Amino acid sequence: METRTLGRSGITVPPLTFGGNVFGWTIDRQTSFGMLDALVERRLNFIDTADVYSAWVDGNQGGESETIIGDWLKKSGRRDEMIIATKVGKPMGGDKKGLSAGYIKRAVEDSLRRLQTDYIDLYQSHDDDQSVPLEETLAAFDALINEGKVRAIGASNYAGPRLAEALRISEQNGLARYETLQPKYNLYDRQEYEQNLAPVVTAHGVGVINFYALASGFLTGKYRGREDAAKSRRGNSVVEAYLNDRGIRILHTLDAVSEQHRVTPTQVALAWLLKRPGITAPIASATSVEQLDELVKALALRLSDEDYRQLDEASAWK
C-alpha cells in the first residue's frame, strides 16, 4: 500500500486515517477489537482518537476510545505496528481542559495510561486555546518530544492565521512545530480549507488529516430526502446542513461518476479527497468490516481528469 509522510515528521502512514471516535460509541468493546484486528490485516494502521472520545454518550466521561485501543494494544501486542494519534484540550470535566503547559503535562499521562503505551505518535491540540500563549503550548509539546513521550505534534480546528503564527513561533524559538493540521474538509465543505488553510499548509509542508471526509455520511448517498433523517442519530443535523440545491447537485454527480466506475459514492468522494493538494490521509470511520472494506477500495480507485472536473464543478463554492 502507498504510504505518505505526516508533514516533515518522518512518520509514514497509509493514505487513510481511521476515526477512532466510534470505539465506545457506535461500536462496543468486542466489535472494536474485531475492527482493530481488521485494520492491521488491511494495513490501515493509522488511528486518530482523542481523550474526550466519547464523553457525549450517556454514562461516559471521556477516555473510552483510548481505553479500548489500549486494551487491544495490550492484548494483541501490536503496538509497534500501529500509528496512534490522539488529542488534548477539549473539556474533560472540572479544570481538565485547554492547552496550558500544566494541563498538557497532566493530560498526556492520562492518555498514555489509557492507551497502555509509553509514547504517542501524534499528539494534537484539539482546539485553539487562545487564552494560553502559543509559546507556552508549543514549549510544553516540545518538552514531551524531548522526553520521548510524543513523536510529533499536530493542530486541530486552527484558523489559518493562528496556524501560521504557531509555525512562526516554533521556528523562531527552536521549538517542535505542528506537523499536521486536522481541519473539516470534504467535497461539500471546501471553502474554509481551500481559502484560508491550504495556502498555509502548502507553504510550510504541513500534512493534512481532515475530518468529516464524508460530510457526516451525507456523501455516502444515504440522505436523499428529509425523511432520511431518521436513518441515523445525526440524521437531522446532516439533512439540515447538506440537503440543499448544492448538496443534491453533488450527490447527482457522485452517482454519475460512481455508476461509470461501478463503485459507490463513498469511494468516489474519498478518491476525490486523496488527490487534493496537501491532503495526507483523510479520516473516515466504519462500524463493520464490510464498511471498512468499502473504504479500502477507495484507495485503488483512479478517477479520470474529467471525473475530477465534474466533481469540482458540482461542488464549487466560488
Automatic annotation (TrEMBL):
One of its GO terms (cellular component) is cytosol. The keyword Secreted does not apply. Pfam families: Aldo_ket_red. Residues 15-315 form the NADP-dependent oxidoreductase domain. One of its GO terms (molecular function) is oxidoreductase activity. The keyword Oxidoreductase applies. Keywords: Oxidoreductase. InterPro entries: AKR, AKR_Detox_Biosynth, NAD(P)_OxRdtase_dom_sf, NADP_OxRdtase_dom. PANTHER family: NADH-SPECIFIC METHYLGLYOXAL REDUCTASE-RELATED (PTHR43364), OXIDOREDUCTASE-RELATED (PTHR43364:SF6). This is Aldo/keto reductase. It comes from Acerihabitans arboris.
